[in-house]
Amino acid sequence: MIDLSGKTALVTGAASGIGYGMAKRLAECGANVALCDIESNVKEIANEIGNVTSTKVKSAVVDVREASQIFAFTNEVVDEFSSLDIVVANAGVWTSTDPVEDSQEKAVSDWDLLVDTNLKGIFLTGRAAIPHFVKGRRGFILNIATDHICPPPGFATGGGTRMDIYDASKWGINGLTQSWAKRLSADNVRVNAFCMDATDSEMIRYASQKFNRQMSEEVVDSWMKPHQLADLMLELYDEGSDGRTGENIGIWLNHPIELPPRQGILPSRHP
Does residue 2 lie within any of the structural domains? Predict the structure, then answer.
């Protein structure tokens, strides 16, 4: 593992699943870690990570849909640790949506939940961190998207028939990732997204139950594990200031869990 002593990382949605795996691995590498989640057990998770790793860990119950909360937490992290180097914008939710069967009330409620959490939450998290990154002339943002927008070779984009709002919220992350990467490159701030396949988490377990999918031990064992994504995140970070930026990185079942070759930089039609 790389040495992150003296670095500070902020992870949203860190009380379980991918966020927990990312936060724990960052702490194991020596980084100060700030965890936030809408779930109150994030404080217990922070204590657990701090006890195991002996690094400085800060936590708070934060709703990333609320600008005042995520901006205040980010500022508190910088004040306490005197820096911010890494942000993993992981907080996200899923619920089944159907353009044929859903009532107007459910459709609007689902839109507010999914888009506000999965897209607005990523937006607010990034915007809260970016001024600190620009001031420090360095930074690393990893947005957590989905393989629905970056599928394995030979497969179409998009999720299932009851994922229209979820997919819309995740597709929007692509716009943030690419625009931020372009705007912040001169400030040595890199922005990428992980677009991963089935990874063991509360979200996929809930979705599997809703769709009555088999969750045998064999099936669950086939899912990727949060620590595997965390290790890949560290490898991506370790590319340094000259590393890739603006990429959607596909990570799929039955494929090596590794960074793909860097994409060639195409000319942009817009400044």
Answer: no
pLDDT of residue 12: 98
Nearest to 91 by CA among 163, 169, 192: 169
Task: Specify if 45 maps to a domain.
Answer: yes
Residue 262 is assigned to a structural domain of this protein: no
CATH code for the domain of 77: 3.40.50.720
- Provide the pLDDT confidence category of residue 201 given band limits of 50, 70 and 90: low
Q: Of 20, 166, 206, 237, which one is the catalytic site residue? A: 166
166 is catalytic: yes
pLDDT above 90 as % of the chain? 85
Is the separation of the CB atoms in 201 and 19 below 8 Å? no
The boundaries of the domain holding residue 92 are 8-251
pLDDT in tens, 104-117: 999 999 999 999 99
